[in-house]
């Protein structure tokens, strides 16, 4: 695949630095990072350097070696599998979502927008498209794992240190800063069930030139898609009526017009699965393989990522630094093939002058007619770039350290979506002959045009790609300083201060041809754009109260300016560490936090679209049909929606607290137990369409039309009248807009432990375990609503608990790891019951052939399990909670030059 590079100025600057960092003789070794560790390091959640990672708040650390040994494919894979990441998210492989080219996490199940993601302690530009069309978040898909030194995860509020967004926690991805040598890394693998192959090439290097240290990394990734048709268990829809691929219906009678032998002449379509299907309303041509044929459960991906950094020791007190990251990514998927319904933009039927009847025609076009299933792929071209530079060192005449820097980050995404052209009605129906007295379009169509298969050339004449351009950016100027303020009997009082000035913006620009009537699409695709400024000052202190007690206090004020108004928030936190003996730490913390209103929520113009699928619970209930067997369940495409923004939104407010104990009697053994609690009020929300439809059904069935939730749900869902000629009682559209309404609270426990067993003749055994369990989670949509128990809510697909455990055996040149992941219960797709917990096992072997070469083999999902869930029909597995891929294996070779 050839991808054309169109570089923005920021990207050009980033690549210039990358090339300069590499130099003609630059080389790097992954295993040769400088062995000397400074006596104090900055740990995520504080700006004050400290001697160890344990502090008043729990911080989980994932090293670069962990990513390889535990079978993680990349940075996102490592993060999404952490025990704290309990939230269900619609990711890159979830299907027809708003953000299939992005990867997000959800700490504590509080959503991607409540976790702050940093790169080397700095903010990155949001993904340009809002998650679920509502909230902004950070994409984790473009960070090369080869230069990751470690990833630190802080759970709980940290706005007093980092500002907005840090309500559920902070993820800080820390990259290597110095190395010497050059590594080439090759990795390739696939699935034992077929499909989903991927390959990776990494070139990393670095070299010191006197006072100048450089580092660079190039990463090339290729991943093949996984089609639903590639898995036997979801290659065909069973137990439900097959999808109509050709039909004529008399709208007045509700009966299909008999098609004679048409279906047999099309029997080879959709892999030879097309048949004549007879229902209560008559017969039509249908196939059970339409959806699976056109659906990718894993996107195709091609990405190229570069990173470079340079540090120059200007003097013993001052170091200049620069870092640049550039990545481009093409994601390709298919979640629905080309289909046509007559007059789909109006009433979906017409007056047939030849039969003197109102008719509705439909056609689903097969891969055999268009030149292959790939012809209707949708793809995204993304570019992410960031550039940071500044100076750090010691303030002259003092012992205080400082860092002054500027960071610019830009993310661009171009969406190429196949659409039917405005001429598609005339292609199948011929020219419109006016309208009748009821305003319904009149045609005199030739039935042969509907029943005759298309050629690729004909298909090209009625389809084209719309192209939307979306971008987001952020610029930040920051100044930090830390040092000893004064001396107390138990030690020095350490202080850190920060000042920040920033501006960010975004724009979503749909294809202008949509509003010009070029496509067979509703007009009103408006540009959404906005900017906001940010100012912040903060201070943090570390106070040795007595020899065994240490306290931390922090406060920060953030001010946001947007949409002609200001929104300012002061947040604070405090923590206490008590060490009654050297091996034991008792800790506690309390913090306030906030999230400024999402820019998408504020500036969203009137947006229209449709959901990938919809379940009409009310019609299912009226028909007396359980969801699993309901003809109105999971129909695709789903209902239309209309979404608008609001400039009057307030910031969300959060409070978090924690209490924990750490026992570490030796370097080979430690165990931690932490209790955590997070509350959010004034939560900005757009109700999910599924929740609205569930609420509407429950309210209508019990006759409650006036309670706050019922009145709101019924007002948001508009339906065609029950006596409408076409689509009687069906959903017309769902209205959504953001409001400060909801509250939520969640608490739980984290347990972790490590034990190293050393032997003289058989090597060392390292065991690690991390367990997180949500004890309680409650939410309320409106003040007058009853409190909802989210853990018992069968529409809440978050994990209730997760366990990660590993055993590593290091002996001689071998390092062998078994990694166990136990996923707790989650609801089934129908929302009727809980699925049982599931344990997956990964295995890896790393062998050092010599001082320069290592060879590793990894098997994920060793026992080839795919979790089954047929409760709501196709695709017969828990989408989003489990993967349909099965066992995957990789071989990885790393060779080191020089150093």
UniProtKB/TrEMBL annotation:
Keywords: Cell outer membrane, Membrane, Receptor, Signal, TonB box, Transmembrane, Transmembrane beta strand, Transport. Transmembrane segments: none annotated. GO terms for cellular component: cell outer membrane. It is found in: Cell outer membrane. It comes from the Bacteria. Residues 1-29 form the signal peptide. Its main location: membrane. The keyword Membrane applies. It is a multi-pass membrane protein. Residues 346-862 form the TonB-dependent receptor-like beta-barrel domain. Belongs to the TonB-dependent receptor family. This is TonB-dependent receptor.
């Amino acid at each position: 695949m050839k991808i054309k590079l169109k570089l923005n100025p920021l990207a050009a600057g980033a690549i210039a630095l990358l090339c300069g960092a590499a130099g003609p003789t630059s080389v790097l070794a992954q295993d040769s990072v400088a062995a000397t560790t400074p006596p104090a390091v900055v740990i995520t959640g504080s700006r004050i350097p400290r001697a160890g990672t344990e502090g008043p708040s729990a911080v989980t650390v994932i090293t670069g070696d962990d990513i390889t040994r535990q079978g993680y494919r990349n940075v996102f894979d490592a993060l999404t599998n952490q025990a704290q990441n309990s939230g269900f998210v619609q990711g890159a492989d979830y299907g027809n979502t708003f953000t299939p080219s992005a990867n997000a996490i959800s700490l504590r199940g509080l959503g991607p927008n409540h976790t702050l993601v940093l790169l080397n302690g700095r903010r990155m530009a949001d993904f340009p498209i809002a998650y679920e069309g509502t909230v902004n978040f950070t994409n984790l898909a473009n960070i090369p794992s080869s230069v990751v030194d470690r990833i630190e995860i802080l759970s709980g509020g940290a706005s007093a240190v980092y500002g907005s967004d840090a309500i559920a926690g902070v993820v800080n991805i820390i990259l290597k800063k110095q190395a010497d040598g050059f590594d080439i890394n090759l990795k390739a693998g696939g699935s034992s069930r077929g499909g989903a192959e991927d390959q990776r090439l990494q070139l990393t290097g670095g070299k010191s030139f006197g006072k100048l240290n450089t580092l660079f990394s190039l990463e090339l990734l290729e991943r093949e898609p996984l089609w639903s048709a590639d898995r036997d268990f979801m290659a065909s829809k069973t137990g439900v009526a097959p999808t109509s691929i050709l039909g004529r219906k008399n709208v007045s009678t509700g009966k299909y017009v008999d098609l004679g032998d048409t279906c047999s002449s099309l029997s080879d379509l959709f892999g030879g699965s097309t048949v004549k299907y007879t229902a209560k309303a008559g017969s039509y041509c249908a196939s059970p393989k339409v959806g699976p044929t056109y659906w990718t459960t894993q996107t195709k991906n091609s990405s190229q990522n570069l990173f470079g950094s340079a540090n120059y020791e200007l003097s013993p007190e001052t170091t200049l630094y620069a870092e640049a990251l550039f990545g481009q990514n093409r994601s390709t998927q298919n979640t629905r093939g080309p289909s046509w319904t007559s007059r789909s933009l109006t009433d979906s039927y017409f007056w047939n002058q030849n039969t003197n009847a109102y008719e509705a025609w439909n056609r689903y076009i097969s891969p055999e007619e268009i030149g292959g299933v790939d012809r209707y792929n949708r793809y995204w071209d993304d570019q992410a770039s960031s550039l940071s530079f500044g100076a750090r060192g010691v303030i002259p005449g003092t012992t205080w350290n400082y860092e002054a820097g500027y960071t610019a980050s830009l993310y661009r995404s171009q969406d190429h979506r196949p659409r039917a052209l405005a001429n598609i009605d005339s292609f199948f129906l011929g020219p419109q002959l006016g309208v009748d007295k009821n305003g319904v379009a009149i045609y005199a169509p030739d039935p042969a045009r509907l029943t005759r298969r298309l050629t690729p050339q004909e298909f090209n004449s009625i389809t084209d790609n719309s192209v939307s351009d979306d971008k987001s950016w952020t610029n930040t100027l920051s100044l930090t300083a830390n040092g000893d303020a004064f001396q107390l009997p138990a030690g020095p009082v350490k202080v850190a201060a920060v000042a920040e000035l920033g501006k960010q913006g975004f724009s979503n620009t749909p294809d202008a041809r949509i509003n010009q009537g070029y496509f067979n699409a509703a007009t009103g695709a408006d540009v959404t754009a906005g900017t906001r400024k940010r100012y912040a000052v903060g201070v943090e202190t570390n106070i040795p109260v007595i020899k065994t007690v240490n306290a931390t206090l922090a406060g920060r004020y953030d001010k946001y300016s947007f949409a002609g108004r200001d929104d300012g928030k002061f947040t604070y936190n405090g923590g206490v560490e008590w060490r009654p003996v050297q091996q034991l730490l008792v800790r506690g913390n309390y913090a306030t936090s906030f999230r400024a209103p999402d820019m998408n929520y504020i500036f969203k113009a009137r947006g229209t679209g449709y959901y990938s699928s919809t379940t009409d619970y009310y019609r299912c209930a009226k028909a007396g049909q359980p969801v699993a067997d309901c003809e109105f369940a999971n129909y695709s495409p789903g209902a239309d929606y209309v979404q608008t923004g609001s400039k009057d939104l307030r910031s969300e407010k959060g409070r978090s607290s924690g209490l924990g104990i750490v026992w570490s009697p030796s370097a080979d053994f430690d165990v931690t137990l932490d209790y955590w609690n997070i509350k959010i009020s004034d939560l900005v929300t757009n109700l999910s369409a599924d929740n609205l439809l569930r609420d509407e059904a429950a309210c209508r069935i019990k006759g409650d039309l006036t309670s706050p939730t019922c009145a709101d749900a019924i007002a948001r869902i508009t339906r065609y009248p029950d006596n409408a000629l076409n689509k009687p009682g069906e959903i017309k559209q769902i209205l959504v807009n953001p409001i400060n309404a909801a509250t939520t609270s969640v608490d739980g426990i984290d347990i972790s432990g490590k034990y190293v067993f050393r032997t003289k003749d058989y090597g060392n055994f390292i065991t690690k375990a991390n367990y997180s369990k949500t004890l309680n989670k409650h939410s309320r949509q409106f003040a007058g609503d009853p409190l909802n128990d989210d853990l018992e809510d069968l529409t809440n697909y978050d994990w209730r608990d997760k366990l990660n455990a590993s055993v590593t055996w290091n002996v001689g040149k071998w390092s062998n790891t078994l990694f166990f992941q136990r996923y707790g219960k989650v609801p089934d797709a129908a929302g009727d019951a809980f699925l049982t917990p599931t344990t997956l096992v990964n295995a890896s072997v790393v062998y050092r052939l010599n001082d320069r070469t290592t060879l590793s083999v990894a098997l994920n999902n060793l026992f080839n399990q795919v979790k089954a869930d047929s409760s709501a029909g196709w695709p017969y597995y828990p989408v989003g909670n489990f993967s349909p891929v099965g066992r995957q294996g990789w071989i990885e070779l790393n060779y080191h030059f020089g150093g």
